[in-house]
UniProtKB/TrEMBL annotation:
Domain annotation Protein YTP1-like C-terminal: ranges: 273-557
Transmembrane is among the record's keywords: yes
UniProt name for this protein: Protein YTP1-like C-terminal domain-containing protein
Annotated Polar residues bias: 187-206
Region (Disordered): 182-219
PANTHER family linked: INTEGRAL MEMBRANE PROTEIN (AFU_ORTHOLOGUE AFUA_6G12730) (PTHR31685:SF3), INTEGRAL MEMBRANE PROTEIN (AFU_ORTHOLOGUE AFUA_6G12730)-RELATED (PTHR31685)
Transmembrane feature ranges: 65-87, 99-118, 130-149, 268-285, 305-328, 349-373, 379-400, 432-449, 469-486, 498-516, 536-556
Any Pfam family hit: Ytp1
Basic and acidic residues bias (residue ranges): 208-219
Native source species: Bionectria ochroleuca
Amino acid sequence: MMRAPLVSRTALVLAVAAALPLVLAHGGDGGHGMHGNGSMEADMPKDESEYPPTYFAHPEHRGLIVGHIALMTIGWVLILPVAVMFSLVSSRYTIYTQFVFLATNAVGVLLSTIYNASTPDLYPGNAHHSIGWIITWVVSAQVLIGLVGRIARVVRGSQHGGDSEAHKHTFLPVSEEDYREFRHSNDSGQGTEPGTESLRSNSVSTVHGDHDLDSPHKEYEEDADFEEMPLTSPAAPKATKFGKLAKLVASTRIWTYFELVYKIIDRIILPFGFIAFATGMIAYARFFEGHGVYSGLAHWIKGGIFFWLGLFTLGRWSGAFAEVGWAWNIRPKPQHQRWRPTAEFTESFLIFFYGSTNIFMEHLGGAGGAWSAQDLEHLAITVLFIGGGLCGMLIESAWIRNLLNTSMIEVEPMPLSDEEREQSFEPATYKFSLNPIPALVIMLLGIMMSSHQQPSMLSSMVHKQWGDLLFGASLARGLTYILIYLRPPTSIYPSRPPTELLAAFGLMAGGIIFMASSSDTVTGMIHYKMEEMFMYTVTMGLVGVLMAWEIFVLALKGWAQRKERRSTFH
């Protein structure tokens, strides 16, 4: 009888969660109900002579630009994420994957160079050219650093007769019994956070992760036929001059800084690639020239942030950052207790930081002129971000929460019965962050922008689409907190709330449509007679594919990490 209320509440939560996809999917239906078929009548396209020429409509050498786009998509969306995941776990396949990426990127750059030389400059001074060259050289420098380090290790191994016993013993500092206790208390085995226990190549838990004979993951073990030969052997050839030079460089003190640069690039290259990809689309369609740059910056930066927040949310569901308790799990007890921010604290800080920096930019488009009602609306939204972010950070502060408990902590001590002693323990929910403020801020933003007046009917409907998606994502996060409150996780392994999949989908799709709601993008949709549902349906399909790809890439990282662990003991 005591379990009946809990069961009924859980059933209610699951029923709401089951209905949530309808909220995410209804998209522009409201727009059709409000505006009927008058959308294209109200939003008449410009005359062809008023619309500037673009690379998108340029008829010459289309094969070159299509080839460039295809190769860059393959390189930056398919190959590079795999290379980054391999690099994070020091996989033997890292350098090969990086070279495949460099080759693909080089051919893509070559095609774009030929295309630029063969066509008129339709977008003078665009940012994509500069960003593209910068990021190409950054990736090339990272691969060069990795190659030098690899050659240095090979040379060092050949001169010392391969993997010496002393080298092997450096990975076995504790007994098997000590390791079993350490493994289950310190490492979830699911993490992807840089610098945490599951990624340190010299960590006990990293090296021994799957060596336990009683491991529950033995079904993933592969036949010995698939094991790779070690990188070096006693019969390795004598080092070349280049190999000796690489070893010399890798043994200097400055090499530590090169390794730091390599690790930093690993962690920023994918967002940097997203920026290059976005500026490429802008240049291709000739968006945001002149005064339109302010609308472009506002929509594409904010939309990009929500898109990456969706990727981050899906990563948390998949088990990323489990070592710091960000995967809806109990945070493993570290060997040396260190403060780590919660995921909600990080989200609240980003919201606060964005509001603090953006409050001075809301009037840039009309600098020197009078403030319009729309400017004041945008200013109020930034104030919401500042206040909501600050409130969220205060809620996440253990010091603040401890002060709020002062009235009970300072109660005069007296002999307690067993029942009273149990009542004096902290609730199980204290182990987890139940902070809905970041989700509330995003939900309010979605509600406000869904009803925000726009200069065209199509723009209003597109804004309503991404506003509804952000609203649905926030609602899904709220359901996650209810599930966690009703039944807090008891394991260091990710609990993977199903509602987080809905939240990730809503954030990713909402972010992309947010970017598509800028003034120039809407003008282009009107010019090419695209309905709002075209953008909506294409985005839904794209996000579904991207979610599947992210989960696969993270699983591939786990496979590579286990393979490196096993090879250490063979």
